[in-house]
Amino acid sequence: MIDLGLTKLAVIGVVALVVIGPEKLPKVARMAGTLYGRAQRYLNEVKSEVSREIEMEELRNLQKEVQDAAQTIKADVENSISRNMAEVEGAFSDTPAIDASSSAYDHSPFSYVTTDDVARKAREFRRKKLVRNSAIPNWYKQRHGGKLHVTSGAARVARFRPRGSTNSSFY
C-alpha cells in the first residue's frame, strides 16, 4: 500500500494540527480511523467474495470435466458390452457376429467356440459341482446316521419331543 514512515506521519500530524485546530483534531482523527477501518473491512469482504467466486468457477469447471469423463467412460463401457454380447450371441448361435467393430476381434477365443466345447464345459462344471457338494456320500450318511438334509428348528423339536406328554403348559 502506501509507504508511510515516521517522518511522513509527523508531517501529516503537524499540518492537520495547524489546519483543523487542537480542539477538533481528536474527533477528526477518530472519524478518520473509523473510516479507514470500514474501508479495510469492505476491501476484505470484496477480496473474499472474489476468491469465493473464483473457487466456485473452478469447481464448476471440475464438475463439467468429471461429467464429460463419466459420459465417455459410460459410452465406452456400453460399446464394449454390446460388442461382447454380440460375440457371445454369435458363439451360441454358431454364426460369428459380423459388423465393422468385430473385424478387429477376429482372433478372439469366442469366434472358434463350438457346441461340443460348450457341452464339454457344462459337463465338467456339473461334475466339479457334484464333487464339491457331496463330499460325504449319501450311502455313508444313511449307514452312520448323518444328516441327509437340513431340518428346521421346529421339526427337530417335534422329532425329539416325548410322545406321551400332551400338556402344553410351561409353568
Automatic annotation (TrEMBL):
Which ranges of the sequence are coiled-coil? 52-79
Q: Which UniProt keywords apply?
A: Cell inner membrane, Cell membrane, Coiled coil, Membrane, Protein transport, Translocation, Transmembrane, Transmembrane helix, Transport
What the entry lists under Pfam families is as follows:
TatA_B_E
State the Gene Ontology terms under molecular function: protein transmembrane transporter activity
Q: How does it sit in the membrane?
A: Single-pass membrane protein
Assembly and partners?
A: The Tat system comprises two distinct complexes: a TatABC complex, containing multiple copies of TatA, TatB and TatC subunits, and a separate TatA complex, containing only TatA subunits. Substrates initially bind to the TatABC complex, which probably triggers association of the separate TatA complex to form the active translocon.
Q: What does this protein do?
A: Part of the twin-arginine translocation (Tat) system that transports large folded proteins containing a characteristic twin-arginine motif in their signal peptide across membranes. Together with TatC, TatB is part of a receptor directly interacting with Tat signal peptides. TatB may form an oligomeric binding site that transiently accommodates folded Tat precursor proteins before their translocation.
Official protein name in the record: Sec-independent protein translocase protein TatB
Its source organism is Duganella sacchari
Query: What gene is this protein a product of?
Result: tatB
